[in-house]
Amino acid sequence: MVKKVVRKGSGNSSKRKKRRRLWFKRIRFLCILMTIGFIIWGIQNCSPKDDSVAEHGKSSVQTMKETAAETKVAPKLNTAKTESLRKELTEYIKKFTGQYGIYYYNLDTHEAIGIGHDKEFTAASTIKVPLNLLLYEKVRAGTTNPDGTLAYLKEDYEGGTGILQNEEFGKKFVIRELSRLSITKSDNIATNMLIRYFGLSNLKAYMRQLGGKIVDETKNTSSPEDMGLYMKTIYEAYQGEEAFGKELMENLLHTDFNDRIPALLPKSVKVAHKIGTQVGVVNDVGIVFAQTPYVIAVMSNGVGEKEGSNVIANISKKIYDFVNTAQ
Fold it and tell me: What's the whole-model pTM score?
């Protein structure tokens, strides 16, 4: 008979292993309890404690939406107050064979007048207004450096207005200088360089984003109302904190072409504006800094340059007299 040999201390070792397993089970159980406790605590402290807190959060979101909506005040179009001016302007433009569209918007009272304001017209160089707004937006967002440079390429060349026509291809120009030239000199080459940089389709998409209704992918068209909207947006940028918005307004205040909106107004009145001219097309859109500032946009089709300029100047004077008489 073989005797079973039991080594000394083996019983104690087995007991110790059992005790360790028991302690591990207890520790694991405590960890589970602590985890559950932390979860319950987090739910209680992160959730609204009562209806008033939940309602407060909801009202904050509503306030943000309402604040955004307040910046886009709907114009009071053709009100009783403005009806006499609308009739006067309507009778005035009937004297001429060309087609005119007029939009007036008071930046303080939000009263507006529209005569053919939503009709499609050739934009000509007034397209440089939303183009420079797009540049402003990119500078404000930090995605475009106004002190960066663009090279003048052969594809940018265009005759007509401007001072870059005699420059050599490959020469680099600072973006903010191209912006200034596109407004003050109505430089077509500077404009083409900026359009190439941003992309024509992106410009048209931005015009729609601003609220433009007459936007065509292949045609350079707009409406007096849309142009008025773009000028209003520039005014808001000018009123803001961004330096480039003020720079854009300064460029519009110092354009070389002043035979239309500012022509018959007092010399002391500041006018920020952009003209547009093609064969049969005479336009001008701007902001008149009268005692009550207002937006004016006049576009035309089938007119001569001299007649069209005179008509716009007279429309501008009639609106200015109306605004200042109404004070």
Answer: 0.77
Angstrom distance (rounded) from CA 123 to CA 274: 11
Q: Where would I find the H helices in 142-212?
A: 175-184, 188-198, 200-210
pLDDT digit string, tens, across residues 207-249: 999 999 999 999 999 999 999 999 999 999 999 888 999 999 9
pLDDT of residue 69: 42
CB 283 within 8 A of CB 123: yes
SS3 294: strand
Q: What does the longest C-alpha to C-alpha distance in the chain come to? A: 137
Q: How many CB atoms lie within 10 A of CB 170?
A: 9
What mean pLDDT is predicted for residues 97-122?
A: 96
- What does the alpha-carbon distance between residue 280 and residue 115 come to, in Å, rounded to a whole number? 19
Q: What is the CA radius of gyration of the chain?
A: 34
Tell me which residue of 242, 122, 143, 249 sits closest to 198, measured CA to CA. 143
- Domains belonging to the chain, first-starting first, are 74-325 (3.40.710.10)
> Under a CB-based contact definition with an 8 Å cutoff, are residues 93 and 100 in contact?
yes
Residue type (1 letter), 286: G
CA 154 – CA 196 distance, rounded (Å): 12
* Phi, psi values for residue 68, rounded to 5°: -65, -40
